[in-house]
Amino acid sequence: MWFGKDKLTVPTPDEALPGRDATMPVPDAHHVNGHPLTPPYPDGFETAVFGMGCFWGAERLFWQTPGVYTTAVGYAGGTTPNPTYEEVCSGRTGHTEAVLVVYDPAIVTYDQLLKVFWEGHDPTQGMRQGNDVGTQYRSAVYWTTPQQREAVVRSRDTYAERLRSAGFGDVTTELRPLSPSEQGGAGPFFYAEEYHQQYLHKVPHGYCGLGGTGVACGTRLNLDQ
C-alpha cells in the first residue's frame, strides 16, 4: 500500500497509479524554432533524455544549445502510462520531469550535451533540486544508444571526482536505458501537457529553479567553431 509513504520514495509498480491508454496531445511545432516535437526527425539526428529538476528551465538550456534540432518536456523513468502533471507531482507515478533533446551530432556531440546537463544543476541532491522537493525532481540520464551509455558513465565518474574535490557529496543521478525492453529500462518518454512545452518562451519571466554547482565538468563545447 502507498499510504504513509512520502514524496521522496519512488513507488513500486504495484503502488503506482494506473494511468491511461490515451496519449497526451502534442503541439505540431516547437514554439521557438518551429520544428516538430515528435518523430520522424531528420536522418542522422539522435535523441537524448535528461532529468535535472523542474523541466521548464532545463528545456530552455537545451533549446538554446547550437546543434539541438528540437526539445520537448515530459515524464520518464516511472511506471504509470501517460501520466498527467498532477499525477507526477503526487509522487505516485515514479516519473521524473524530463527533457527530450533531438540533436545533430555533426554540430553538437553527446558529450557536449552532457556538459550542459552536469553544469546546469546539482546532481548530488537526491530527490530534490533546490527548493523543489519530490521524486519528480531527481537528476537522471536515460540513454538511447550503447555509445551514450558509455559516455554518460564515463562523464559521471569524472564529474563525481571533481565534485568531491570541491566539497560536494556523492552524485545521485539515476542512469538507465530509456528502452523499456532492456533490463532496468526506464520505460518510454511521455510528453507533458501543451502548456508545459517551451514554457519559458511563452512566459519569459516564469519560474526557473535551476542552479548549478559552479564546478566545471571539463568538456569543451567549442560551439562557435
Please explain how this structure is put together.
With 225 residues, the protein is an alpha+beta fold. It has a domain at 46-202: Peptide methionine sulphoxide reductase MsrA (Peptide Methionine Sulfoxide Reductase, Chain A). It is built from 5 helices and 8 strands; from the N terminus they run E-H-E-H-E-H-E-E-E-H-E-E-H. The protein has a 6-stranded mixed β-sheet, with helices on one face. The protein has a two-stranded antiparallel sheet with strand order 4-5. Helix 3 (110-120) runs parallel beside helix 4. The chain is globular. The termini are far apart.
Features:
225 residues, alpha+beta, two-stranded antiparallel sheet, 5 helices
Summarize this, please?
Helix content is 22%, strand content 17%. The chain has 225 residues and is an alpha+beta fold. The protein has a domain at 46-202: Peptide methionine sulphoxide reductase MsrA (Peptide Methionine Sulfoxide Reductase, Chain A), CATH 3.30.1060.10.
